[in-house]
Specification:
- The protein has about 500 residues and is α+β, with helices and mostly antiparallel strands.
- The protein has 3 domains: about 220 residues, FAD/NAD(P)-binding domain; about 160 residues, D-Amino Acid Oxidase, subunit A, domain 2 (D-Amino Acid Oxidase, Chain A, domain 2); about 110 residues, BFD-like [2Fe-2S]-binding domain (Arc Repressor Mutant, subunit A, Orthogonal Bundle).
- The chain contains 13 helices and 22 strands.
- Strands 1, 2, 9, 10, 11, 12, 19 and 20 form an 8-stranded mixed beta sheet that branches.
- Strand 1, helix 1 and strand 2 form a beta-alpha-beta unit.
- The longest helix is centred in the N-terminal third of the chain and has 20 residues.
- Bound molecules: flavin-adenine dinucleotide.
- The site of flavin-adenine dinucleotide has 41 residues, from helix 1, strand 13, strand 18 and helix 8.
């Protein structure tokens, strides 16, 4: 066994992976008197598939009967309003439309309507005229559709960060830059061990929420009975000038492998189109392509013909952790007592996350974990100030208390220095972290103007040289090579 010279620590329950599933599980477990530790390999939580998806809280009518996706999606949807209210994060309940173009597609739309009704989803059928009245930018070729008003949108990264923050408020611990590189089970003691670069952690219970790498973690414990088949999705974001083109998320009738190319009003206010659904070999293949772009544009324009590609300001790809079962895997290991797999959580995993997480204490109790509820569990998290959304009087008051809210750093999104400092205090460590949490750098210029200023603020707040500030963790330093030498020279000579 490697790494025996490493420090050994322990925790009752260790969650591997700080995506939406791991952080939601951490919050649920923090309701009980337990020692909970979450390990995340990236510099911040929420940086896996959770940061690179469509952000839709699905309606709950898509999923096939009898699947775990169906079991968890609609209940998850129903939990969102309260969850986001408690955590003070943005949830926009803008509804979901599935539209049909031909009589055959309309027949499929009706089947989804019946499925939704059977499940208790609030769904209604709309005629072509009703649809076009509701969404005048839709293609005139559309024949009708299904409307689910309780679908919505969130900022997934914001939610994962808030879940972790609230779990930590309630006593859960978490470590970032803590990749599990080895794991094993000691049958004699019943303990499970997780090795990171720094330490070995002995755990009584383990929650495998490692997303794309959940099969790799399972295999470390000898569970090789499922595997992850990565499926990439490319997405394209428009600037705010077209934000009002549609109100609801527009779905076509689904294809064989995915829900199709959508037009998505995001919770941040931008319109987005995507995603593709392409099987890939590499779990970390996050590249976008001309071919992907063309397919996305064609698909989105068949729903909303006036979409103008010149208004696109950013693109990204996320990789779905599809399992070889074609469904979520939410189960205790048949081989290692106390090991719970939350794997294969592809779409609609964001929507299902609160419902999956709510099941975690029950599943671990089945494996012997004793649950004693905390009387002082605090479900509420203090919200983040969004300066640009405040009234003039509120802005003045805030600036009087803290003048850093009077300094605009990101001009495109009107983000102040005060908001950036708050993001750092809540855990942001990188330029991307600031972008995801505070939206500084997420606007038209994509950080061209504000990144050097943000790098200086990170440097000042964390007490590190600006040459150590990264875009997204080690290897992505923003002041490099000659500039770095010059900068050091300047600093040393100053
Ligand atoms: C393009 C696209 C669009 C989507 N759109 C939607 C949508 O609109 N609505 C919806 O409901 N769902 C959507 N999904 C699905 C949703 O994004 C996922 O179901 C969800 O994010 C999965 O969360 P997770 O926590 O399981 O995985 P992740 O977010 O990937 O989290 C796993 C975490 O584990 C960490 N990790 C991995 N290995 C280790 C290790 N060895 N040690 C420590 N940490 C480790 C990773 O760094 C990562 O942070 C979409 C997915 C994609 C790709």
């Amino acid at each position: 066994m490697d790494g025996t010279e490493k420090k050994v620590s322990s925790a009752q329950v260790v969650i591997v992976g700080g995506g939406i599933i791991g952080t939601a599980a951490a919050r649920e477990l923090s309701r009980y008197k337990l020692d909970v530790l979450l390990l995340e390999k990236e510099p911040e939580v929420g940086w896996g598939t959770t940061k690179a998806n469509s952000g839709i809280v699905h309606g709950g009518f898509h999923e096939e009967e009898g699947t775990l996706k169906a079991k968890y999606c609609f209940p998850g949807n129903q939990m969102y309003p309260k969850l986001c209210e408690e955590l003070n994060v943005c949830f926009v309940q803008n509804g979901i439309l599935m539209v049909g173009r031909t009589p055959e597609e309309m027949e499929t739309v009706r089947q989804y309507y019946e499925r939704g009704k059977r499940r208790g989803v609030n769904v209604k059928l709309l005629s072509r005229e009703e649809l076009l009245r509701q969404e005048p930018s839709l293609s005139p070729e559309i024949a009708g559709g299904l409307y689910a008003p309780e679908g919505g949108a969130v900022m997934p990264f914001e939610l994962a960060a808030a879940l972790m923050e609230n779990a930590a408020q309630n006593g859960a611990r978490y470590k970032v830059n803590a990749e599990v590189i080895n794991a094993w089970y000691d049958r004699d003691s019943g303990k499970k061990y997780l090795e990171t670069g720094e330490e070995i952690i002995a755990a009584d219970y383990i929650v495998n929420a490692a997303g794309l790498f959940s099969d790799d973690l399972a295999r470390m414990f000898g569970d090789d009975y499922f595997s992850i088949r990565p499926r990439k999705g490319e997405e394209y974001i428009f600037d705010l000038s077209v934000k009002d083109l549609v109100k609801s998320t527009i779905f076509p009738v689904p294809g064989q492998v995915s829900k199709g190319i959508l037009v998505i009003p995001t919770a941040a206010g931008n319109l987005m189109m995507g995603p593709t659904g392409d099987d890939v070999e590499d779990k970390e293949d996050l590249g976008t392509s001309l071919d992907g772009f063309q397919r996305v544009l064609a698909g989105a324009r068949s729903l909303v013909p006036s979409l103008d590609p010149r208004k696109i300001i950013a693109q990204f790809a996320g990789v779905r952790a599809a399992s070889d079962r074609g469904d979520f895997i939410v189960e205790l290991s048949p081989n290692v007592p106390g090991l719970l797999h939350l794997a294969g959580i592809e779409s609609p995993g964001l929507t299902a996350a609160p419902a999956i997480a709510a099941d975690v204490p029950r599943l671990l109790a089945e494996a012997g974990l004793e649950l004693e509820a905390k009387e002082d569990f605090q479900p509420r998290r203090e919200g983040v100030v969004r300066f640009s959304t405040l009234s003039r009087a509120e802005q003045d008051e805030l600036i009087r208390k803290d003048p850093s809210f009077g300094r605009i750093i990101c001009r495109c999104e009107s983000i102040t220095e005060g908001e950036i400092v708050d993001a750092i205090r809540r855990g942001a460590r990188t330029l991307d972290g600031i972008k995801f949490r505070a939206r500084a750098g997420a606007g038209r210029c994509q950080g061209g103007f504000c990144q050097p200023l943000i790098a200086q603020i990170i440097s000042r707040e964390l007490g590190i040289p600006v040459t150590e500030v990264t875009k997204a963790g080690p290897g992505s330093e923003v002041v490099i090579s000659k500039a770095k030498e010059l900068y050091h020279g300047e600093v040393q000579g100053a």
